[in-house]
Design brief:
133 residues, 3 helices, elongated
Length: 133
């Protein structure tokens, strides 16, 4: 009688145990697939970012090597440099020039952008020249 009950339990529960094990294995496979997809996505995004950075570096390298770019940039930077020089000289030596701040917030923002741009581009040019050597 015990053997018959054991056989019935084994046959009856055997299917449930097999199904449970199958579901556990399948869940583990899905988790692995999910992690693999996350890793592949991260790698693809990193590759895309590197490719974009290379494209932008090539673009900037071409742009900075073009002499007319610097002529055009100079049209904006030279007046700003003259104004900054006047402000500095007036504040140090106390001349009677009364060099005022730029008249509008938009011009102040523009001047700040130009200064940042000048230093960023200058740093970029220096880095490109260092890489060429």
């Amino acid at each position: 009688m015990a053997r018959i009950i054991a056989l019935l339990i084994k046959v009856g529960f055997g299917g449930m145990i097999e199904k449970a094990l199958y579901h556990v294995e399948r869940r583990a496979e899905l988790e692995n697939d999910r992690e693999r997809l996350k890793s592949q996505t991260a790698v693809a995004l990193a590759r895309h970012a590197v490719n974009e950075a290379k494209i932008m570096a090539d673009y900037n390298k071409s742009k900075l090597a073009f002499p007319w770019f610097w002529v055009f940039a100079g049209l904006f930077i030279v007046p700003l440099a003259l104004w900054w020089s006047a402000v500095i000289l007036d504040s140090i030596f106390g001349f009677s020039w009364s060099v005022a701040d730029l008249p509008t917030p938009q011009m102040q923002e523009w001047a700040g952008d130009m200064i940042r741009w000048l230093f960023y581009v200058g740093s970029g040019v220096g880095a490109l020249r260092a890489l060429r050597r």
